[in-house]
Structures are given as structure tokens and as C-alpha cells.
Amino acid sequence: MRGIEAALKILTENQNGAIFASEALRKLADREKMKAPDITLASSLIYIVMRKRELWEKISDDYLRAKESLPPEVYISVITGAGGILELRRFSEGVLINGIVEYLKSDNELAKYAGLVNAVLHKIKETAADKPEKFKKSPTLEGRALWAGIPSWSLPVWLKTWSRQELNDLFSFMDLPSYASLRVKPGEFDNLMQLLSSQGIKAVKSDISDAIHLNESILPRKLPGFSEGLCTVQSEGSIIAASLVKKYYSGTGLILDMCSGRGIKAGQVLQDLPDSQIECWELSGNKSNSAVNELTRLGVNQRAIMKTGDALSLEPDKMPSFVILDSPCSCSGTWNRKPESKWRMDWKKLDNFASMQKKLLNRAVNLCEPGGHVLYITCSLLKTENENIIADVLTNNPDCMEIRTNLRGHSFRKGKPYGLYILPSSAWLDGFYCALILKR
Q1: pTM above 0.85, yes or no
Q2: How far apart are CA 311 and CA 315, in angstroms?
Q3: CA distances from 291 to 218, 260, 336 (A)
């Protein structure tokens, strides 16, 4: 299967949120035995459309008279073509248009729309080249939000968290590429750098953490030293947030990771603290199994207890002295790297997240032993999931207080008034929020 056809099929199926595009592409590529260049083209088109879907819709709608009458496959073909024409680098616009038209012609029901789509895409190619830049420089925040790929429904909640000038900065970050950063096993930095160099992989040390920056995205299994546990592909924002455990852990007592996911942060904690023990809770059985595999790869699984179930009802083997709550959230800080998630969100889901976050954090402080710490983490940049949650829990738990973290620099911003934001200000940083609570 060719890359253009694969992208259009997956984007059409993804409209109702029933599938995850990245997973669907992997399955399709395996089933159809797609060649590497076609996989790359398909993933690029999917990413471009997902990243700024409303912008491509806005531009395309200027060239369509009755989009409501078009079958979904046809409208997806138009906005995919628009995004590809206006943003895809190093690929012939004519080849892209012809590929989309041929895709429509191959279906008896869609073939009658091939001429329309061909005409619209050629018109976009000829007259719309400067339109993304106009939205970027728009005098309105709404226009700049479209360019940045911020869903229109969410702009009011962004305005409740950030000033307009701060939002301008955040929107500019949304146009940065997303590259891989590596967490390195303690003591293996020089060894790993030599291994990367021997494979022709360009790497440099970060100036704000112990992470290694690559100038590309990369599959973990292609990394030298990965199978031996020398490195882990992990967003630098995630590395920085989890490093607070090492800084504030007392050195005694159980560490509880309440929502451990695939075990990435748990692995970091166990590598950073070689005498520690961690108990990991995860609702998803698949993610729990992945966490077991991850900790085994790192050689730290002997110090981990894995439990699958609801963090609101599970009980720890003993009272923890440090609790990590990397809470489920809107993932708004990772929308640039993983744009699909933002189109699955709406106001109702955001409210549901906030309700769950309060319950989880209240449970975390209740489980923690006196004198211990709770580290609250989200990959969200929205106050409703961050400062508001901390304020509510501190109000309901007078025996708790916030501990200020001392991370400084242009990539960090103090919350208003609680916690700390890690801004997505580079190709290796996703947006994160973290707040540290002491239970007296």
C-alpha cells in the first residue's frame, strides 16, 4: 500500500476517535508489507493533519461551497491535501495531489468527487501558500491559536491559565519539531555517547538536565545500548519531573507510583535510587505488563511490586513515605508531539479529568505516611488540572503544605500560585506540571 492511500484510510477511520492513528499505521504497515518510504510519508501526512487539523479545515473551507454534502472520505482528502501542500517538506505537491485523486478514483462511490478535489487542491497550491503565515501573524489570539493547532473549544481554558503574552510564547513553541531525548543509566553516560557516535547518531548533552538530545525521532530498539538497559527514550520534561523524587526522597520507606503507566518514571526512580523499593499501580493490564518488561530490561524489577487495578481502591503493602501521582490528564503539554490526543478532548472530558485528579490526589495524601511527600505530575498546561487541583486538596487536608521546588530558567515557570510548569520550549521538552506536597 502506498503512503498517501494509507494516510487517507487511517485519517478517515480516526474521525470518530475509535482508533489510535499510530497503532493503526503500525498494523496496516505490517499487514500490507508497506515499504519504509511509504510508512514515512503516511506518518508525516497523519502528523501534519492531526497537528493543525482546524487550520487545514479553515483554509480548505474557503475553497468549498458545500462541504456538508461531501462524504467524510472526500473532506479528509481535501484537508490532507491542504496540509501536505502547505507544510510537507521535500515532497512534490503534484505527486501528492495525483495520489489523492487516484485514491478517490479507485472507489466507485468516491470517483465522482475526484475532479472537484483535484481542482480544489490545485487552487490551494496556487493561492494559499501564504495563508498559514497570515494566521501565525494574526492580530487575534484566535487566529494564532489556529496556526498553533490549539483546538478552538480549549482557548478559554488556556486564557484562564496564561496571559496573552505567555500564550503567544506557548503558541510559538507549538511549531517546534519533536526530537528524542534519552535518559541514561547512572554511570554510563560516556559509554553511551561513544556507542551513539559509533553508529553515526548525533547526540549532545542537555544544558538543563542529565538527558541526551538527539536531532531526530528514533525507535528505541534501534538505539545502541537500549536492550542492555543503558538508555531509555523519554521526554526531557518527564525526566526533570521524575528527578524530583531523587532530590526529595528521604532515603527510607516505600515509594508508591499510583499511576505507573508503562513504568518509565518507575524505572528512572529505581535507577536513580539503587537502595529503594517501589510499588507500581496501573489500571491497564497491557500497560502493567509493559511496565514489567521495562523494569526487567533495566534490571531493576527485583525491587518493584506490580499491582493491576484502580488506584482509588488498591492498598499498598505498607504505608509509603513518598507517593508519585502522574495523573491521567488532557495531555495538553504533549499536544505538539502527540497531536491526536487533543482532538479526543472536550469540555466534558476535561471536567471529568479534574474530578478524577482531585480524588486521586486526596487518596495519595491519605496513603502517605506523616513526614512523607506526594509528587503530583501532569503533562498538562491547564490550570484546571494543576493549580486548581492542588488548591482544593490543600484546603481539604490542613496537615499538608506545598514545598517549593527550585528549578530555574527560561524553560520553567512558577504556577499561580502552586507548583511549577516545565514549558515545551525546545524540541526535547514536552510541557509538564509538578507540585510537591509535604504531609506534616
Answers
A1: yes
A2: 8
A3: 20, 8, 25
